[in-house]
Amino acid sequence: MPGSSIKRSLGVELTRTIQESRVLLVGAGGIGCELLKNLVLTGFGEIHIIDLDTIDLSNLNRQFLFRHEHIKKPKALVAKEVAHKFQPKAKLEAYHANIMDKQFNVHWFQSFTIVFNALDNLAARRHVNHMCLAASVPLIESGTTGFNGQVQVIEKGKTECYDCNPKEVQSELFGESEDNPGVFDTSENAGNEHEIAELQREKKDLKEIRESMGSDDFSYKVFDKVFRKDIERLSGMKDMWKERNPPNALSWDQLTEQSSPLDSKTIVKVDQRPWSQPEAFIMFKESLDLLSKRFQALQETKASEDPEPVLEFDKDDEDTLDFVTATAILRSAIFDIEPKSKFDTKQMAGNIIPAIATTNAMTAGLCVLQAFKVLQGALSNAMVFLEKSGARAINTEPLNPPKGDCTVCSAATGYVVVDTKRATLNNIVEDVLQSELGYGEEISILKDSALMYDPDFEENLSKKLPELGFTNGASIIVVDEDDQDQDPRANLELFIVERTEPATGDEKPASLKDPITIARKPKTNQQPLPEDDNGPANGLVNPAKRKREGEDEDLTNGHVAKKIAGEPPSNSGGNNGVIVIDDEEGAGGKGEGAILIDD
Ligand SMILES: Nc1ncnc2c1ncn2[C@@H]1O[C@H](COP(=O)(O)OP(=O)(O)OP(=O)(O)O)[C@@H](O)[C@H]1O
Ligand SMILES: [Zn+2]
């Protein structure tokens, strides 16, 4: 659209604001390519594009900035080059890099007016969410699955953040946390002793089986528990089977006999028809054996302070796919369910949903419309109506305020100006936290999830900040541990701003850049962790729980490691859409109607 038509549609003021904006686009894939084209044609003044990947043949059907001759070239660079041709005046900058790299620190994020996420994974989405909150830059988060798409505006203090709602995480095949029988809090469960005893026994059984991993009878033990013992117990509950057929336990001996002429090398290639029970039995044993060996190798090579290894299901990992296909078929036989082929299992368990180019295009369009609202500071204004005869394809939901108990967006952010040549951790603790901010003695300081200081661990106090990794842009996490205080403060994340102007000699080695207010810690429903046996494996907050809920271990809920731990900060992702394009009844909870964008 030529400049004059944009001005006529959007008005002089918004057009100028758009021209003056400097935006960041994270991801140049399906949504990213569409979005970059939109941003360039809408006249955004300066656009930075980042993507870590190179172009693949399979991208070409929908990532239309890319052509055959671009295969293997960096997405970000090609996207920039091609988009530049649409609008030679546009100022574009490309990075072939991971957005989670340290160079893209909070100061860099602060240089943007708006950030657009066009990503495909939780970790990167959570990371950008965190950085945008810290930098107080509005984030437009988007995603699509098949015909469904979603756009969510995230603004610190005004809206929910990406982490306000827990996200689904990958399922674990090996490495679950059965070996922590202390997780049941018996005091809360008076009257349920019998069930608790059952659960404890179950955990013990599973633990014993796991401990036999690597021995000759490991697959027998797993089989016997899952496909015989548990099933016999279940079918013994007569009340459950009044109106349905009870499940049939499987027999190891019988399947061993039936499968004796079969060979896994042939079966593994059969992916279009369901395996027979004896075939599945062979593949169950084979894949379990391969995965066990892999798991044990991981256990042997891990450093003692590393967390227990976990094997995750991945549709493209043959062994995990064979394992899931085989166990699903054996289970189907038990419960009289129609068995599925390896190919079907890959689709179902791998959650493969084809990417639809038009969904990406519409979603990218909606991202720009949302950006207009952000630029106008009018998040709640109705703005655009699209019409499509027939079904109502676009719905909206009101923006929710931040969830009070979200540890990610309720954390306070501050900046501390530091003379890195002089400042020690003690300057942070005494001059900044205690004198300037009024913290008491009971505080802990973390870097990512590693403990750097608490009243029982003072070794680092005399060290210079850069020695501890606290360089320009890095963050210091402060946790108020005051037990006496009924209402401790929310976690504080203090970003280091390296002093650049020459020192006059009078200034303190470290001082707050601006005054900050720190709210009280959000009340969560989380049970305190048992301080038992192994304790949190790597000194972090109950890692099993964290994985299940996709929690961010950066800003833990106040429980701090009692030893120095080093683990990269994990981040991840949501579904709290503002605009929902929804082709079917149900997913968005809305029915039929016209296309409508209205909030
Ligand atoms: N941490 C990251 N830093 C930079 N770019 C990232 C990061 N994580 C993912 N991306 C990029 O985000 C884009 C997401 O695009 P999309 O969902 O279309 O995925 P794709 O990999 O291109 O396609 P598909 O997964 O459907 O085969 C990809 O180009 C990917 O390289
Ligand atoms: Zn939040």
Automatic annotation (TrEMBL):
Biased composition (Basic and acidic residues): 498-511
One Gene Ontology MF term: metal ion binding
Keyword Coiled coil assigned: yes
Gene Ontology CC entries for this record: cytoplasm; SUMO activating enzyme complex
Residue ranges of coiled coil: 189-216
Ranges of Low complexity composition bias in the record: 568-580
Binding residue positions for ATP: 27-32, 51, 59-62, 75, 120-125
Disordered: region residues: 498-599
Pathway: Protein modification; protein sumoylation; Protein modification; protein ubiquitination
Swiss-Prot/TrEMBL GO biological process terms: protein sumoylation
Limits of the Ubiquitin-activating enzyme SCCH domain: 285-346
Domain THIF-type NAD/FAD binding fold: 9-386
Subunit structure and binding partners: Heterodimer.
Family: Belongs to the ubiquitin-activating E1 family.
UniProt name for this protein: Ubiquitin-activating enzyme E1-like
